[in-house]
Design brief:
Structural class: alpha/beta
Strand order of the largest sheet: 1-8-7-6-5-4-3-2
Largest sheet: 8 strands, parallel
Distance between the termini: 8 Å
Number of domains: 1
Helix content: 25-40%
CATH topology: TIM Barrel
Order of helices and strands: EHEHEHEHEHEHEHEHH
Shape: globular
CATH architecture: Alpha-Beta Barrel
């Protein structure tokens, strides 16, 4: 299993000072910056595009940027995010007519590729493209909005995905997204996740009056992760 990584979702950040927000969560110990890209088509919400990714790179962010595409179709936007500085680009299999081709496109653009599985989407797709996947992202909420509660059945799905990844012998990150908080992150890690997307859990879970608010919340998460039995 890869080392644990916390990936704050900037969807929950203060966009009026986004560069500062990202600098602060990275300084607090977070390892990856997570982008939730929604198109008001595949999901009923509209968020951010490649210009925001490019702006953060120009701002000086050097940490990996993990772009979760909740858009349909996906192929048109992949090169734009690659050129904007994405590290990982993940998409939902339902949003691509040719999943294998979309994964190859991401790799050809110089990024790592991944598939995203909604709560009711089968992991069977991995049987055919596991050799082209660098990340598996499991949604523990229905995609489209931040601040939702964790769906408990995602734990069983994590265990199943962990078995598939381990059996492949490949270096594949297993990411979870949705309702990840201090009080459940240990249990989620024990189910097999190594990468933890948290939007409101990081940005909204901190006390605005605490000058070191992100240090506090991220330390609490890391303390919980240290208890996890792998």
């Amino acid at each position: 299993m890869a080392d644990f990584a916390i990936a704050p979702s900037i969807l929950s950040a203060d966009f009026a000072k986004l560069g500062e927000e990202v600098d602060n969560v990275l300084a607090s110990g977070c390892e990856i910056v997570h982008f939730d890209v929604m198109d008001n088509h595949y999901v009923p919400n509209l968020t951010i595009g490649p210009l925001v990714c490019d702006a953060l790179r120009k701002h000086g962010v050097t940490a990996p940027i993990d772009v979760h595409l909740m858009v349909k179709p996906v192929d048109r936007i992949i090169p734009d995010f690659a050129q904007a500085g994405a590290t990982y680009i993940t998409f939902h299999p339902e949003a691509s007519d040719h999943i294998d081709r979309s994964l190859q496109l991401i790799h050809n653009e110089g990024c790592k590729a991944g598939l995203v599985f909604n709560p009711a989407t089968s992991l069977d797709y991995l049987n055919y493209v596991i050799d082209k996947v660098d990340m598996v992202l499991l949604m523990s909420v229905n995609p489209g909005f931040g601040g939702q509660s964790f769906i408990p059945t995602a734990l069983d799905k994590l265990r199943e995905a962990r078995k598939i990844i381990d059996a492949s012998g490949r270096d594949i990150r297993l990411e979870i997204d949705g309702g990840v908080k201090v009080d459940n992150i240990c249990e989620i890690a024990e189910a097999g996740a190594d990468t933890f997307v948290s939007g409101s859990g990081v940005f909204g879970g901190a006390n605005d009056k605490d000058p070191n608010r992100y240090d506090t919340i991220v330390k609490q998460m890391k303390d919980e992760l240290a208890k996890a039995k792998k």
